[in-house]
Amino acid sequence: MRAFSGAGRLSAFSGRRVRRLSSTRRALSSLLCLSQQVKEALANGEPVVALESTIISHGMPYPQNVETAREVEAIVSAHGATPATVALIDGRLRVGLGDEELVRIGRGAEPVTKTSRRDMAAVLSQRVLGATTVSGTMIAAHLAGIRIFATGGIGGVHRGAEATLDVSADLTELGRTPVAVVCAGAKAILDLPKTLEYLETQGVPVVAYGNGGEFPAFYSAHSGLRAPWCLDTPAQVAQMVKSSTELGLQSGMVVAVPIPAEHAQAGAEIERAVDIAVGESNARGVTGKECTPFLLRRVAELTQGASLVANIALVKNNARVASQIAGSLAAMDR
Ligand code: PSU
Ligand code: MN
C-alpha cells in the first residue's frame, strides 16, 4: 500500500517534470536560431564546422577581422562543409550568420560583449550584441548538434594564475561539452604547461595533429611540450570523436594544428613581444576578461602587425583541417 502511494507521488512528480522539460525545449527552440544552410546541412548529415565570433570582435582589428571571417567561411565551404559562425543577436543564439551580421560584430560601430558561458544568459536576456568565445561557441555548437569547431587559439591558464586564479572558462567547457576544437594550441601569453595539466584534470584529450607529438604554441609549432596524443589524418581524428561520442563521455577535445611553416618565421620576434605585453598587463593591473584582448592588441602593435598576419594564416589553416575532419566524420555516420 505504501509502495503504491509512493509510486503515485512519483508519477505525479514526473508528470510535472515532463511538462517542465517540454516547455524548456520549446523555449530553447525559440532562443536557438540556425541559419537555413546550417539547418539543411545538419538534417542531411552533411559536415558543418562551428566558428567563434570573439576572434572577430576582440581578437583582431577592423577591417582584417571581417575579411578573415569571410575568408574562413569560404575555406570551410570550399572544403565541402557548411560554416556556422556563432553570435548572440537580438536575444537569440544564432548559429550561422549572414554577411551583415559579420560586419555588425566586426566593425566596432556598436558595443559587442565578449560572451563566455558565464555571460550567455545575461547577454540573451538583456538583448545586447554578444560575440561568443570558445566556451560560448562550444555550448551553441552542441545545442545545434555540431561536433567540430575551428578557431585560432583556445584560452588557458594565465601566467601568474597561482596568484590570480585566472583560468579560462574554455578549459572547463572542454571538460563538459562534447565538441572538438581545432586550434593552433594556446598562445605563449599563457602558461602552457599548466594549461596542459588543467586539461588533463578536466579529462580533455589534447591531440597534436601532424606535429610529431609536440603541442604547438600558436605562433610557433614548438612549445617543447609533449601532447598526450598524436594523430596525423582527418580520419583518425574523426574516429576518435566517434569513439568519444559512443562512450557518452560528454567532454570535448583539443586538436592542436601547428601554424603552417611558411608563417612560423616571425615566431621568435612575436614571443619577445608577448613577454613585453605580459609585463605591461601586470604593471597596469589588467584582469579578467580584458586580459586576453589586451595582450592580443599589444602583441600586434609591438610586432607591427606580424602577429596578425600569422594569426590569420593559422586560423585559415585550422578551418581547412576542421572541414576535412567534419567531412570524414559525416562519411563515417553515413
Ligand atoms: N586566443 C586567441 N585569440 C582569441 C582568443 C583567444 O589567440 O581571439 C579569444 C577566444 O574567444 C577565447 C577567448 O575563447 O579569447 C579566451 O578568453 P579568456 O582568456 O578571457 O577566457
Ligand atoms: Mn580569464
UniProtKB/TrEMBL annotation:
One of its GO terms (molecular function) is kinase activity. GO terms for cellular component: cytoplasm. Keywords: Glycosidase, Hydrolase, Kinase, Lyase, Manganese, Metal-binding, Transferase. Signal peptide: none annotated. This is Carbohydrate kinase PfkB domain-containing protein.
